[in-house]
Amino acid sequence: MTTSTKIHARQTAIGLSLATAIALAWAVLHIGSVFFLPLEGPSLALAPLLVLALCWLNVGLFIVAHDAMHGSLAPGRPALNLWAGRLALAFYAGFSFDRLRPKHSEHHKSPGTAADPDFNADHPTAFWPWYLAFFRQYFGLR
Fold first, then answer.
1. pLDDT for 34-57, tens place per residue?
2. Cα-flanking dihedrals φ and ψ of residue 95, to 5°?
3. Torsion on CA atoms 61, 62, 67, 73, rounded to nearest 10
4. Distance between CA atoms of 44 and 38, rounded to whole angstroms?
5. Could you count the other beta carbons within 10 Å of the beta carbon of residue 9?
6. What is the torsion angle, in degrees rounded to the nearest 10, for the CA atoms of residue 92, residue 96, residue 99 and residue 100?
7. Model-level pTM?
């Protein structure tokens, strides 16, 4: 086993372990808070903390998907990157990894320009038109 192969294997193990931890923590908190936490009494005080934790874990899910898009979550393992990216984006917001990945590469070539698929040239400073266009383009459930 070459040094490069050992480094890639180590990076893959670390990346997939962290991705799994993020996804499991997200699922446990999400399911627990939606289905089992009563929004009354002392539990109500936990709600803002759970929202903060879930927001933080959502960012983690997007970072996992982003690293998978670039092939750096599991270096040299495109099938693992694809699988992990699909799951992370589905959990994150129901986005389609297969639609987002090629557009993300285009985004890196021309960020913030009319050629950037994530930039709304018609409304460059308006949040809602951009958000709605982004959501329509990438949401996975049709």
1. 899 888 888 888 889 999 999 999
2. -80, 155
3. 10
4. 7
5. 15
6. 0
7. 0.83
